Amino acid sequence: MAPRTFWKGYLKLSLVTCPVTLMPATTEGEKVRFHTLNARTGNRVVSQYVDSVTERPVRDEDEVKGYERGENDYVMLEDDEIEAVALESTRTIDIDMFVPDHSIGWVWYDRPHFLLPGDEVGQEAFAVIRDAMAATGTVGISRVVMYRRERAVMLKPCDKGIVLWTLRYGDEVREAGDYFDKVGAEKPEAKLMTLVRKLIDERSTQWDAHMVDDPVQARLLDIIAAKQKGRKKPARVRAPKVETPDNVIDIMTALKKSIQAEGQRGSR
């Protein structure tokens, strides 16, 4: 069953406009989720905001956003003040500019969404924007209100549609150089590179979605199914004992042993 439409609006490039629909490209709907219960009664536990000083419950109408400017000193903002700084239109993806494809590093990517034409009439306008970006090797940059916040987004052609990525805010991204500059710049020996490439060749295969299956979720579902049928829960899967490597490693010897082990595994 196709998921319900997450967002409806318009895609706009200058005077070209077409209706579009937007849906998340990923889902957590199949994840095992738990409620917190009272073990004595079996009833669900509800959460409630409590004043940190008076320890009394706070009514919904008394809740307000606060920006901390000092210890126990806050600037209070009402909901209408916060909403006033948002985009005027929350339903139009107006492409402001284009940048070369691959010029935006992966670290800026946040959430992917599928962008589709909203009706048959708008398919031609949608297709020409999509195909023009693909032909020029560019992606579109815009801003739109999503998840109750104004987000910068990137539009990238994909097959017959467009993938819209929300982008991270500038203060969320750290500079890689602050960390990688501390790594030594020396090149590894050619012999070592040859052996590692041989290991890579031995382990290379085609991508399969099953590579990222969640084994913990599968075990949780087994436990839940057993409890529903009144059986004992499955035996706990113990993690294999991990041997602590020596601090001093002969890389050449380790690689040769690794390749030998790969050959034995392949023959099996």
Automatic annotation (TrEMBL):
<comment type="similarity">
    <text>Belongs to the prokaryotic Ku family.</text>
</comment>
<dbReference type="InterPro" id="IPR016194">
    <property type="entry name" value="SPOC-like_C_dom_sf"/>
</dbReference>
<dbReference type="InterPro" id="IPR009187">
    <property type="entry name" value="Prok_Ku"/>
</dbReference>
<keyword id="KW-0234">DNA repair</keyword>
<keyword id="KW-0233">DNA recombination</keyword>
<dbReference type="GO" id="GO:0006310">
    <property type="term" value="P:DNA recombination"/>
</dbReference>
<keyword id="KW-0227">DNA damage</keyword>
<dbReference type="InterPro" id="IPR006164">
    <property type="entry name" value="DNA_bd_Ku70/Ku80"/>
</dbReference>
<comment type="function">
    <text>With LigD forms a non-homologous end joining (NHEJ) DNA repair enzyme, which repairs dsDNA breaks with reduced fidelity. Binds linear dsDNA with 5'- and 3'- overhangs but not closed circular dsDNA nor ssDNA. Recruits and stimulates the ligase activity of LigD.</text>
</comment>
<dbReference type="Pfam" id="PF02735">
    <property type="entry name" value="Ku"/>
</dbReference>
<protein>
    <recommendedName>
        <fullName>Non-homologous end joining protein Ku</fullName>
    </recommendedName>
</protein>
<feature type="domain" description="Ku">
    <location>
        <begin position="55"/>
        <end position="185"/>
    </location>
</feature>
<comment type="subunit">
    <text>Homodimer. Interacts with LigD.</text>
</comment>
<keyword id="KW-0238">DNA-binding</keyword>
<dbReference type="GO" id="GO:0006303">
    <property type="term" value="P:double-strand break repair via nonhomologous end joining"/>
</dbReference>
<dbReference type="GO" id="GO:0003690">
    <property type="term" value="F:double-stranded DNA binding"/>
</dbReference>
